[in-house]
Amino acid sequence: MIPIKAENLSFQYRQNSKIILQNIDLTVDKGEILAVAGLSGAGKSTLCYCLCGIIPHVYNGLMTGNVYINGKNTRDLTLPQIATMLGIVFQNPDNQLFSFSVEDEIAFGPENLCVPRSEIERRVTETLKTVGMQEFRHAGPQQLSGGQRQLIALAAVLSLQPEILIFDEAMSQIDSAGKKMVRDMILKLKEEGKTIIMVEHDFENLALADRVLVLRDGRLAPFNGQLL
Ligand SMILES: Nc1ncnc2c1ncn2[C@@H]1O[C@H](COP(=O)(O)OP(=O)(O)O)[C@@H](O)[C@H]1O
Ligand SMILES: [Mg+2]
């Protein structure tokens, strides 16, 4: 089973004449870490939205071609169905966090998937430990710094234990000690056979990847150190 496959994928937002993604073909193998680089505005987040079904299910626009998650066309899946297979950490943690406490934030996903209470409790404790945020369990996400909010957004996605993870510049505001911890976590996820797509600029983070592609003019190409 191929975790992620895009076939001749093109996308254009409604009311924006620019073609953001152009005839993209992409296969991501199980256990692979794929990094995607590219200039700001190149369409990296848009690509993430296509790979996780937010496009076409949430954003309006013209999508042609197909995306398959574990062999199933995203057009035929609902977002809750996708959530059982794939988790995404958005570029801006404020688009992800909406609960009153860190604990509730992390429990929210598993609660919606009807995970038993004791298992949710275990996952909250474990994921907070993974991102080094145990002491903030009862804090409100709004009291936290940008980097801390990114760590909580990561924990919230990890608590769903998806087989496929997308990190859209998910470490951009995290300090260097935190980044080191997240890199270790990503390598551990890979060892467990998870499939990871990360949008990244940071060379230390890019070094984790099995393959680095650059998104440029709506197309993906092998990365040779040049974004332009
Ligand atoms: N909701 C939207 N409606 C119209 N245009 C958008 C929307 N979101 C992003 N865009 C445009 O799509 C292009 C790619 O954006 P994005 O995918 O966020 O790029 P990146 O993540 O590489 O910075 C940009 O030109 C941006 O202005
Ligand atoms: Mg982006």
What can you tell me about this protein's structure?
- This protein is of the alpha/beta class and 228 residues long.
- The protein has helices spanning 44-51, 54-57, 79-83, 102-112, 117-130, 146-158, 176-191, 203-206, and strands at 4-13, 21-28, 33-37, 61-69, 72-73, 86-89, 164-168, 195-199, 211-216, 219-222.
- Strands 6-7-8-3-9-10 form a 6-stranded mixed sheet, with helices on both faces.
- Strand 1 and strand 2 (21-28) form a beta hairpin.
- Helix 5 (117-130) crosses helix 6.
- It is globular.
- The mean pLDDT is 96.
- Bound molecules: adenosine-5'-diphosphate and magnesium ion (MG).
- Adenosine-5'-diphosphate binds at residues 13, 16, 18, 20, 38, 40-46, 59.
Write the layout of secondary structure elements.
Elements: E1 4-13, E2 21-28, E3 33-37, H1 44-51, H2 54-57, E4 61-69, E5 72-73, H3 79-83, E6 86-89, H4 102-112, H5 117-130, H6 146-158, E7 164-168, H7 176-191, E8 195-199, H8 203-206, E9 211-216, E10 219-222
Parallel strand pairs: 3-8, 3-9, 6-7, 7-8
Antiparallel strand pairs: 1-2, 1-4, 4-5, 9-10
The chain binds adenosine-5'-diphosphate and magnesium ion (MG).
Please summarize what this structure is.
With 228 residues, the protein is an alpha/beta fold. The chain has helices at residues 44-51, 54-57, 79-83, 102-112, 117-130, 146-158, 176-191, 203-206, and strands spanning 4-13, 21-28, 33-37, 61-69, 72-73, 86-89, 164-168, 195-199, 211-216, 219-222. The chain is globular.
